[in-house]
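About this split. The held-out portion is used to measure sequence recovery: a designer receives only the structure tokens and must propose an amino acid at every position. Recovery is the fraction of positions where the proposal matches the reference. Here is one held-out target exactly as it appears in the evaluation file.
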């Protein structure tokens, strides 16, 4: 894979103090005999968990975790993008043309990350790195090159994003907190979202509490309560922010490929739509927070809502380690990760034994009871519905096709990702809703629109020493676009070339004098048609 690099171009001192040319992919129309489909999304669209076992280790090695050229060449066949792609291939064969499918969906990425990945060379999402683990940073930096390789050639792009923007807005700040209760909650919630069983997920969080049991305080719990009160209060704002981030993805796609059709897929309720949960009104935040509140209280040995109670000194009550070996063994079954608790034999006392017993009761009553997780749908449902409403309105406003997949059937499991059955249903809905869009896109007699130069400059007035970005863009025409950049003083008749025709489509310039300049961008398509656009730039002191 050819990695694009930032090119430096030395211009005459009359205009430029310093400059760089950004290698941003130009719009590429697919050949007349090829129909290219590209899918953008997160772990749902990537096909995470499809066909994998319930074993946590197996899921950690899921092929849909990391986007790579190898995954693109050997996609998850059960994912809806691949299933829909087979449908497109069959339609294309009937018309005597070819069809390609490329799944660029990126596990752990938010819509905010996807738009940045499209437009920013070397971008790597901090949230994704947190979820996927240390060592993935350099891999994530290559995503931009993959996006740049395939998006400009797309005839159809599907976008299914927004869920991670909502969830990570809550989880990520907790994961970096010094408050151990926050870190415990965020760890367990992240494991739930990755489809881990409830015992493993909660076990990971309890381990963090156990390691920090001597430092837990009333203030910690108060901070958690206040945080989640704000989460509930601002629930609609999280959805609004997610919708705006999805809008940013649409704009980014159109910036690199203004001629593609875009299908905006809605979200579905990932937690057991068909289950009847009578008398249960808990949402995900409430369930998880209540569990860890009780766990923190039991580990500390006193109710945290009464800050004046003194902690019991475990050292004074220390007994032989073997006296509670049985309890430790039982507790460790919560999760493989919980076995680290065996490293604390000197803490064993009758008080600890009692607390462990209480923790096991919590696990039995609240943690291991599946409906507690499935009723998270009572919280997820309104948010997903509201997000879908916003996405539908956005599709109408921006001229996109909205694909409503909310009512796909659920498998009554705890994994928020669709099963193979769910992916099949999503693909079937796409086939029906996008039938006319695909048919028009594959039409052999489609006549290209006239070439139009829609280049832009960041501002028409800057101060001396400031940087100006000139971005080339076009629509219509035939085939690949190439761009050329020129400048001259407003009082001059002679143009100076900044950069000759190439697929490089953006330049950053820093004017050297406080005068007016004319800036010109030319765009040329494969047929040799040229469209020109000129800007006037005022440089002030």
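Reference sequence for scoring:
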């Amino acid at each position: 894979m050819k990695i694009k690099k930032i090119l430096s171009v030395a211009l005459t001192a009359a205009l430029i103090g310093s400059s760089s040319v950004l290698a941003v992919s130009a719009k590429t129309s697919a050949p007349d005999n090829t129909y290219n489909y590209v899918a953008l999304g997160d772990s749902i669209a990537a096909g995470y968990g499809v066909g994998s076992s319930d074993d946590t280790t197996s899921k950690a090695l899921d092929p849909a975790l990391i986007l790579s050229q190898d995954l693109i060449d050997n996609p998850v066949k059960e994912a809806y993008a691949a299933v829909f792609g087979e449908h497109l291939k069959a339609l294309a064969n009937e018309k005597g043309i070819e069809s390609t499918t490329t799944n660029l969906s990126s596990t752990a990425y938010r819509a905010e990350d996807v738009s940045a990945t499209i437009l920013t060379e070397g971008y790597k999402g901090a949230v994704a790195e947190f979820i996927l683990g240390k060592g993935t940073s350099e891999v994530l930096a290559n995503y931009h090159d993959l996006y740049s390789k395939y998006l400009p050639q797309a005839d159809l792009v599907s976008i299914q994003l927004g869920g991670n923007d909502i969830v990570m807005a809550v989880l990520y700040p907790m994961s970096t907190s010094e408050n151990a209760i926050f870190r415990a909650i965020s760890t367990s919630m992240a494991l739930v979202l990755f489809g881990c069983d409830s015992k493993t997920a909660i076990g990971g969080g309890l381990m963090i509490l156990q390691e920090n049991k001597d430092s837990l305080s009333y203030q910690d719990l108060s901070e958690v309560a206040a945080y989640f009160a704000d989460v509930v209060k601002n629930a609609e704002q999280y959805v609004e922010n997610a919708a705006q981030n999805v809008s940013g993805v649409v704009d980014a796609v159109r910036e690199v490929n203004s001629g593609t059709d875009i299908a905006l897929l809605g979200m579905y309720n990932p937690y057991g739509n068909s289950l009847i949960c009578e008398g249960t009104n808990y949402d995900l935040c409430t369930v998880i927070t209540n569990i860890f509140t009780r766990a923190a209280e039991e580990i500390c040995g006193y109710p945290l809502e009464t800050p004046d109670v003194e902690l019991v000194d475990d050292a004074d009550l220390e007994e032989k380690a073997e006296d509670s070996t049985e309890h430790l063994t039982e507790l460790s079954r919560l999760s493989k990760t919980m076995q680290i608790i065996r490293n604390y034999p000197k803490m064993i006392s009758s008080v600890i034994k009692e607390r462990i017993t209480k923790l096991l009761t919590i696990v039995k009553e609240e943690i291991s009871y599946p409906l507690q997780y499935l009723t998270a749908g009572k919280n997820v449902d309104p948010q997903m519905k509201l997000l879908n409403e916003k996405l539908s309105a956005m599709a109408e406003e921006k001229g996109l096709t909205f694909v409503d997949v909310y009512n796909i059937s659920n498998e009554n499991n705890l994994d928020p990702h669709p099963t193979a059955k769910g992916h099949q249903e999503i693909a079937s809905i796409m086939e029906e809703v996008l039938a006319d869009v695909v048919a028009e896109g594959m039409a052999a007699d489609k006549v290209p629109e006239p070439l139009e130069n829609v280049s832009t400059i960041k501002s028409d007035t800057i101060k001396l020493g400031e940087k100006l970005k000139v971005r080339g863009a076009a629509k219509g025409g035939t085939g690949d676009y190439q761009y050329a950049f020129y400048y001259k003083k407003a009082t001059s008749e002679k143009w100076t070339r900044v950069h000759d025709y190439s697929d490089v489509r953006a330049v950053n310039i820093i004017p050297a004098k406080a005068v007016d300049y004319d800036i010109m961008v030319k765009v040329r398509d494969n047929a040799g048609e040229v469209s020109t656009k000129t800007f006037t730039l005022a440089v002030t002191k």
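Annotator remark: The chain has a mean pLDDT of 74.
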